[in-house]
Amino acid sequence: MTSSDFLELPSRRIVLIGAMGAGKSTIGNRLSELLGWPYIDNDYEMSKMAHMSMKELGALDVPTLHKLEHDYLADVLRRPAPLIAGAAASVGDDPPLLEALKDQFTIYLHVPLEKLKSRAGSSGVGRQAFSENPMEIIKERYERRDPRYREVARLIIDPSDPQLDAEKIIAALPRQ
Q1: What are residue 175's phi and psi, to 5 degrees?
Q2: Backbone angles phi, psi at 120, to 5 degrees
Q3: What's the rounded Cα separation, in Å, for the pair 40 and 28?
Q4: pLDDT of 19-72, one tens digit each?
Q5: Under CATH, to which class is 11-164 assigned?
Q6: Model pTM?
Q7: For 82, which DSSP code?
Q8: What does the alpha-carbon distance between residue 131 and residue 59 come to, in Å, rounded to a whole number?
Q9: Greater confidence, 43 or 155?
Q10: Where are the domains of the chain?
Q11: Buried-state track 121-143, b at ≥16 Cβ within 10 A, e below 16
């Protein structure tokens, strides 16, 4: 199957959602290679939009970061397709964006809570709140956001291998 096979797809936007450390960037880049569509990384794009380095983004307070994450995804959803985008985990707390994601080919990269605790890390963009009780914060966010992600996703994948995960996503893309 070639990228030209997908040019006529009714939904030519793939949005990857999930917690920090779920593999959005890794799988998004793999999908980009396979489909020939651009991958738009949320952290990179937000740094461009805000004219900030990644380190500066990582130092923002949580409400400011979430506003920037909202603006980034709203902008991406207005861009011409085809594209693949990673969405910040905070989309799970943003009802208008959750509603907008129902109209996209949204993939929830579900990682079980115990795995998330070891994968999320403690520094970088989106980890500002982890300075105290990071495991409690990860658990609370997971329990709050997981049902919301499930509600908007057209496909739920427990990431295991980026190549296989990308192939599962491509196989599930709607045809005509």
Answers
A1: -105, 140
A2: -70, -25
A3: 8
A4: 988 999 999 999 999 999 999 999 899 999 999 998 898 888 888 988 999 999
A5: alpha beta
A6: 0.85
A7: S
A8: 12
A9: 155
A10: 11-164
A11: eeebbbbbebeeeeeeebeebbe
